[in-house]
Structure formats: C-alpha cells, structure tokens
Amino acid sequence: MRAARQFGVFLLAAALGVAAVPAVGAEAPRDALTHFFEQSFGNLKDELTLAKQEGKLGVFVMFNDPDCPWCQKMKATVLNQPAVQDYYRKHFRLLHVDTRGDTTLTDFSGREMTEKDFAFKEHRVRATPVFVFFGLDGKPLLRYTGATRDVDEFLWLGEFVVSGEYKTRNFTVYKRERLAAKK
Questions:
Q1: With contact defined as beta carbons under 8 Å apart, do 42 and 106 qualify?
Q2: Which of 98, 47, 89, 107 lies closest to 71, judged by CA?
Q3: Domain annotation covers residue 157
Q4: How far, CA to CA in Å, does 109 sit from each of 45, 46, 137?
Q5: I need a surface site. Which of 15, 51, 79, 94 has the fewest CB within 10 A?
Q6: Total structural domains in the chain?
C-alpha cells in the first residue's frame, strides 16, 4: 500500500513538475538574497570604493519593503535567475535597503542615517520596489519604480544603463525597440 501511494505521489509530481523543470541548458533559480545581493556592512561610500576596484559601473540599490508583494515577486521570479544575477553582478555592486529599516547605514557622502531615512528622506521612496543605479560618484544615474514584467525587461533595464542609453532617451522607448526586435 505504501509503495502504491509513493508511486502515485511520484506520478502526480511528474505530471505537475514538467513545466517547472528548466529547459535544457538553463540553470535552476538561485536564492536572490545570497546570489543577487552582495554582503554589505552598510557603508555606501565603501561600496563605491569596491565598485571602482572591481571595475564596475557603480552601485545598484533595490529599495524594498518586507511586506511588499511586488518586491517579493521580483525576488522570487526575476532576481533569482542566474542570467540576471550574473549580468548585474558583472556590472554593479548590488545592495538592498529596507524602507522601514532602523539599521544604520553610511550614505555616499559619509553621513550616517537609518535605512528608512536614506530611502524616504534622501531618495523620496514611497512605493516599492524602487531600483536606483548610482554612478561611481554616488549620484543617481537612473531610477525605476515598480516591478518589471519579466526577466527580459529587467535585463534590458541593466543593459540600458550599461550601454549609456539612459543618457539620451528614456527606458520606455528603449524597451519598445527591444520588444519589436524580439518579434
């Protein structure tokens, strides 16, 4: 009886799991907190120094709220993808800031404040998620509010900054062109 039950569970898992199996050559998702975001001691000035030493373009910050369903969606469906993790880690130091956090951090100019003050008072973050790309001078290059539609759109956002396209046009135009090219 136990063997029959185990076989039934196996068949159900196999039937349901077919769509969950990654395509041949595709990597399985990896935890966003350990594979996307960098370990940080909360000193953004030091993060800039590390970014420079590592030859990166700057620091990428995700402002998130622990109760935000869109933040959780991004972590569970986009930031957990190896292609996203590898691309973003190649070009940026990757950090997250809790918009309600009382943890002290040091901002890019060396001032100490809580995470929530850095988010709300310094960067006017009210809705989450908010993604900000900071250049090596600590100044924002691009701000994107909200969840992206999918992995491709998030990769395009990174490419938009890496390529320098953000200097001459907005992301919506860039995204439309990428969507058209995909068809």
A1: yes
A2: 98
A3: no
A4: 7, 10, 9
A5: 15
A6: 1
